[in-house]
Amino acid sequence: MSLLGNLRNKAVEAFVKNHELVKRFGEVQSISIDSDKGTADVSVLLHGEMFPIKFCGYYYFTDSDSGTDIVVRKITCERQWIDQALSYWLEGRTLRYNIPGIAGGIAKIIF
Question: Residue 14's domain spans which residues?
Answer without folding.
Answer: 3-110
